[in-house]
Amino acid sequence: MSTLRLFYALWPEPDLADTLSTWATQAQPHSHGRAMRTETLHMTLAFLGSVEKEIAEELIDATPYHRLQPGTVTLDRYGVFARPRILWAGPAQTPDSLQASHDGLWLWLSAFGFAPPTQPFRPHVTLLRNIERNDPPADAPPPVTWRYDRMVLVASESTEGGSRYRVVARSKPQP
Ligand code: 2AM
To answer: What is the rounded CA–CA span in Å between residue 65 and residue 68?
Structure first.
């Protein structure tokens, strides 16, 4: 049976992606590792993993109609996940509105048979992979505010050059 590896994410506008790319550049002398390409920077809201084609098609059709709770998140710190060895940008505290966007999405996904994660939501934008230090740089660049009103459904495909992301559906912008 064929499957797609899927996740829902907030995708930054190009200006914000450029700014986050400078965050990656600024951290590299400290953390080393490989910078994510600017056009791949994102914040995952729901990772679904391998999804059967039939369900994937249902999700693609339904995604424009999911009313994502819009909101604002300020990215103001670097952080590290030591196990996958990534350096990220994220909020010091998860805003209630972002938590609600996440929780509302998972509630909606339950109708398609997906169970919400047991781990708490840790909002982050991965900047560097394969980092060489477990401590993040002490100082982050000036905080950046991200206003979002929609999400995208992304298929992650393995290629010879690594993962390639393909946006397969978008929710409609919410007022
Ligand atoms: P990461 O950036 O922290 O690695 C595509 O792989 C996206 O899905 C990335 O944002 C990645 O997060 C996230 N992802 C991959 N595996 C995951 C998992 N098991 N749980 C949650 N998110 C995952």
So the answer is: 9
Q: Which of 6, 7, 37 to mutate to test the pocket of ligand 1 (most atoms within 8 A of CB)?
A: 7
Residue 115 CB contacts under 8 Å (≥ 6 apart), including other chains: none
pTM of the model: 0.97
Number of other CB atoms surrounding residue 93 within 10 Å = 13
Q: Which of 88, 93, 82 is nearest to 23 (CA)?
A: 88
Q: What is the pLDDT of residues 88-98, one digit of tens each?
A: 999 999 999 99
Longest dimension (CA), the chain: 48
State residue 117 phi and psi, 5-degree precision. Answer: -65, 150
Q: Whose Cα sits closest to atom 19 in ligand 1?
A: 47
Asked whether the beta carbons of 88 and 129 are under 8 A apart, the reply is no
H-run or E-run covering 100: helix 96-110
CA–centroid distance, residue 164 to ligand 1 (Å): 13
Cβ atoms of 68 and 98 within 8 Å: the answer is: no
ipTM over 0.85: yes
What ligand 1 atom has the least distance to the C-alpha of 126? 2
Question: For residue 84, how far is its CA from the centre of ligand 1 (angstroms)?
Answer: 10
